[in-house]
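Incident log, support desk, overnight shift.

02:14 A customer reports that sequence design results differ from what the structure should imply. Their input is reproduced verbatim below. On-call engineer (initials T.W.) acknowledged and began investigating.
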């Protein structure tokens, strides 16, 4: 693996790269085709930016409109080191917070570039009309997020992702109207086409007709989000899946950091056995909300009836420097520890309290409503509880995947011509993502990085000519897709795809979730293998193979059953605790993660070696020149 990190000082690497990147003459750009799969913030911004330059772009999404991309669910804000509060923020401070937040398991050069480009994003978004919150005098406002001690998060109440997505959607549709982007909604990518070692197109399925289609290009971009829905119960929308990146992995793209899965601390708790998802409450609520549990075990009193002296504000007690703004991995594990110890609240005793009474007394209800009003309304619609008068009940739930396709500094995978953006790559977050960095990475990848790095690659493709969809590689890929769809339809067992998805999700949450152990992971690998065998014997898909949502689900679950095994194997081979990867055997006496920098200061990248074959591990060493590896402490 060659990460292609530019020479020079850390602060000059991106400038050096841009200064020497190859360019494509404007007259030649119309000769080059690019496929972008995914229309969330990363995909829409990338497609719009490349089309603006003059390339021919095809944009794909499985939703009925790009506006339904899951970027809308990132509610709390987007980070940028503008230092508007004059509280000591800087590019370096943001870089260090992100490196530390990821428990020193991310690539220095990429993280510094993320911080460096962050300030430009705010200017871009404001120019697009994103209605960021403003102070009385008109200045853009900021708030804090977990894992930092400055205010660098720009926000639009509790709907920042939606507002940013509307900005990228407008840019995308402008290029659609100009004829430079062909938009294929309700299309799902089912296979990557590789010709002579390079990504040259995709096989997709029209979800409204069931037709299988071929699409060729000189470069393919995957911006399809993360695979957190593998747990079934998660904060992700039901349609979110990992199939695009997994199909690319099976064609030669390495997967990296696969077991680094973020569990979000502020989700609504599970309330029954028949739920299909969990609802995310923005982390921004932790700015003013205080988290606590009853000191008494199995306390059945209503939260309002528990006096102050009988409440355990456990984050403030354990992490006094950061308190309720401790990073997500630490906050989630702390909540699980209290719940497991019998201090949980709610009907299923699986939640903790998020209390705004002190903030309302000090600031007034109007001020809290101004900052979080839509979140409080959403909470009341779902639960029937008025959080202005009693605490919200929250619990940890699967959320974000730090792992994904391995990419180099140019965001290109190990397959030349295949790029991965946003949550689809293993990214900038290491073993734990800081809040409000997901919107940032998606936007920076799409608006500011890919528009330089993809043309740098395409400059060498001018003599290639049009890619012919009649090439034998397309024939082979289409036959493979049709065979898989047919095989799934013909199993004719008696269990639904949802049954296998739920079973896999619970297994992973118990044994490869907030905490892992050698014994549990080995058991999980065996159980997943058996579950996969049952899947191919007992699955039943009703209906026919044309327009069939159950067939769509089955294909995604088939991929999850393979990906889930790799997740467990990745966790099993990393004999340390770091960030969201908490191995029970490797912890400090007071229960914190215990890293092993001597043996595991690398990114695990996995190469697919064929059906039922063990994947091969490749190690990308992580070298730190600007920061010292330190024990991560928020106390």
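02:41 Re-run completed on a clean worker. Output:
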């Amino acid at each position: 693996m060659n990460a292609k990190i530019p020479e020079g000082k850390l602060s000059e690497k991106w400038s050096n790269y841009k200064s020497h990147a190859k360019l494509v003459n404007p007259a030649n750009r119309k000769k080059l085709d690019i496929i972008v799969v995914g229309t969330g913030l990363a995909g829409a911004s990338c497609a719009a930016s490349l089309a603006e330059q003059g390339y021919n772009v095809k944009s794909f999404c499985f939703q009925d409109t790009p506006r339904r991309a899951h970027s809308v669910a990132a509610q709390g804000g987007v980070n940028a080191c503008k230092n508007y509060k004059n509280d000591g923020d800087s590019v370096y401070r943001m870089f260090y917070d992100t490196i530390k937040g990821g428990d020193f398991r991310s690539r220095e050069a990429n993280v510094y570039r993320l911080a460096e480009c962050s300030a430009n994003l705010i200017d871009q978004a404001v120019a697009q009309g994103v209605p960021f919150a403003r102070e009385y005098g008109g200045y853009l406002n900021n708030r804090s997020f977990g894992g930092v001690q400055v205010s660098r998060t720009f926000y639009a109440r509790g709907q920042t992702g939606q507002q940013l997505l509307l900005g990228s959607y407008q840019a995308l549709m402008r290029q659609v109207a100009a004829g430079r982007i062909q938009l294929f909604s309700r299309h799902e990518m089912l296979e990557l086409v590789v010709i002579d070692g390079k990504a040259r197109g995709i096989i997709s399925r029209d979800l409204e007709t069931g037709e299988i289609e071929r699409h060729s290009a000189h470069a393919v971009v995957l911006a399809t989000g993360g695979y957190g829905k593998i747990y079934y119960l998660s904060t992700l929308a039901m349609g979110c899946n990992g199939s695009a990146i997994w199909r690319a992995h099976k064609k030669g793209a390495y997967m990296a950091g696969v077991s680094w899965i973020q569990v979000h601390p502020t989700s609504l708790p599970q309330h029954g056995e028949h739920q299909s998802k969990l609802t995310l409450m923005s982390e921004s609520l932790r700015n003013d909300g205080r988290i606590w549990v009853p000191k008494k075990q199995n306390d059945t009193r209503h939260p309002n009836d528990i006096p102050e002296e009988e409440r355990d504000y456990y984050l403030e007690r354990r992490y006094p420097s950061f308190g309720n703004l401790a990073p997500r991995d630490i906050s989630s594990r702390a909540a699980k520890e209290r719940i497991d110890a019998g201090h949980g609240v709610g009907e299923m005793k699986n939640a903790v309290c998020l209390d705004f009474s002190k903030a309302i007394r000090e600031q007034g209800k109007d001020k809290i409503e101004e900052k979080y009003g839509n979140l409080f309304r959403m909470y009341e619609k779902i639960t029937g509880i008025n959080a202005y008068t009693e605490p919200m009940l929250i619990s940890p739930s699967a959320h974000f995947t730090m792992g994904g396709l391995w990419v180099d500094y140019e965001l290109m995978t190990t397959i030349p011509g295949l790029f991965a953006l946003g949550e689809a790559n293993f990214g900038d977050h290491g073993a734990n993502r800081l809040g409000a960095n997901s919107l940032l990475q998606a936007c920076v990848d799409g608006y500011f990085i890919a528009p330089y790095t993809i043309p740098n690659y395409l400059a060498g493709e001018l003599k290639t000519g049009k890619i012919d969809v009649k090439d034998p590689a397309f024939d082979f890929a289409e036959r493979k897709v049709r065979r898989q769809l047919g095989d799934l339809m013909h199993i004719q067992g008696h269990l639904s795809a949802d049954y296998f998805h739920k079973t896999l999700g619970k297994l992973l949450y118990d044994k490869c979730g907030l905490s892992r152990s050698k014994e549990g992971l080995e058991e999980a690998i065996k159980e997943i293998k058996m579950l996969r065998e049952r899947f191919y014997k007992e699955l039943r898909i009703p209906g026919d193979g044309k327009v069939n949502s159950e067939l769509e689900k089955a294909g995604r679950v088939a991929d999850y059953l393979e990906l889930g095994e790799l997740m467990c194997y990745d966790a099993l081979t990393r004999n340390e605790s770091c960030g969201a990867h908490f191995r029970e055997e490797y912890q400090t006496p007071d229960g914190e993660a215990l890293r092993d920098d001597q043996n595991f200061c690398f990114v695990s990248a996995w190469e697919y070696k064929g059906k039922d074959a063990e994947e091969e591990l490749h190690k990308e060493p992580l070298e730190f020149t600007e920061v010292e590896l330190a024990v991560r402490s928020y106390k």
